[in-house]
Amino acid sequence: MKAHDGQTSAFDRASRVFLLLSLLAYLCLSPALLTVLGIPYDAPYGSFVFKLHPGSYLLTIALALSLAGQGNPLVALLRRLAGQPLLGLYLLAMLSSFVYSLLRYGASGSAFFIDTLMMPAAIALILLRLDAAQLRGLFRLVLIAVIANAALGLVEAAVQHHLVPYTVAGGVPVIEDKFRATALLGHPLENALVTSIVLLASLDRPMSPLWRGSLVAFLVLALLAFGGRTSFVLTTLALLACAALGALHGLRAGRYGYLHIVGASIAVLLALPVAMALVWRSGLGARIFEGLYLDDSATVRLRIFSVFDYLDTFDVLFGISPAQIQAVSARVGLSANLEAIENFWLFMLLQLGVFGFAVFALGLLCALWLLWRRAGSGGRWTLLVFLATASTTNSLASKTSALTLLFAVLCGVAGYRMRSAQAAAAERRVAPRHAFSRIGARA
Questions:
Q1: Which of 216, 27, 20, 218 is nearest to 137 (CA)?
Q2: CB-side exposure of 36: number of CA atoms within 13 Å?
Q3: Is the pLDDT of residue 200 over 70?
Q4: Residue 334 resides in a domain
Q5: Which InterPro entries does its entry note (predicted)?
Q6: Helices H, strands E: what count in the chain?
Q7: Nearest 5°: CA angle at 280, between 277 and 278?
Q8: Number of domains in the chain
Q9: Which residues contact 441 (CB under 8 A, 6 or more apart)?
Q10: Mean confidence (pLDDT) of the chain
Q11: Residue 177 vs residues 199, 233, 287, 369, 370: alpha-carbon distances, Å
């Protein structure tokens, strides 16, 4: 028995190591960097082996070790899925979508189903085995990595130079009027989305007001450096809503008086213009502040819906291939390499058709509902902002680690809520003992 327990523990330890390595790989190895390293990850050529992110291989190994630690891996997998029916439905929906696409169109253009849509289920299956302390450690690792990435983005914005060349599609350079940092994640929008996820989720992590304020200010500045308008605007609105709701709750609970609220409001009103002036003068977020109107980037998101003019009923019901999607995109005026259908819902509808899209959408909503039920207030704001932001890009219809990182971050930060719940339960167990001791003393 002890030997078996030791073997299980060894498998679990190895699984955690590969899990952390996979997260670091997702956060550090961008498609552009992989191109520099000679790996045709996002290039329109190369073996399917190179179309999967190194982090996905590491995460698959982590899952295999985690399942092997419980004896029969298949039985362990089925047991975990049976315990989490929403996760099982999500995985089944994504597998069905992948198989449908594979059978209809072949392997070309299908790798994102694995990288983007199946790896979140893989990491969730691993996280089921972690305790509260291990989940908190995972969140701290991601937080440190995102802070380092934000710092690199701010440095890039300051010197107006990318550490890794800003390229797409296997090395096609991206030239923009306004400089946007790319840091380690390789694309401004990917950086902004992941930074937003960690920033809002960290609201559920206990920390001092000074540390929280510093973290929020630093990551908001990073959002400006990355130049993602939707992420910046929605994250800022979510932060303001959280602050307002927190102040209202504190007022009702008697922690704050009206003078505290009024004083804080006046301080914010005085500090905000100064902060905005400093940010404007620094040049951070120039693309955001100077582009708050219907520019080319925004009009692309409207133009894409004209693709239905080029489809017949069969195409709408059963979908079209990635090559046909690219051809239709060109017909509505989108550049083959530099512009895409900036709405993953629409892209998946085009590729899977109405019937396949219904399965995909149901599965995704199951996953988001699973996270929603376990999340605190910060986590729920994270989910809302993530879904709204991702819906304005082709994120979940392309290769991205954003959804996998969302699972990791929200499950990781839940470790702090688990600790609070355990502490509260311990207090409830201790309270009766103190009561009986006081009764005995009076007697």
A1: 20
A2: 13
A3: yes
A4: yes
A5: VpsF-like
A6: 19, 2
A7: 40
A8: 1
A9: none
A10: 86
A11: 28, 21, 9, 39, 41
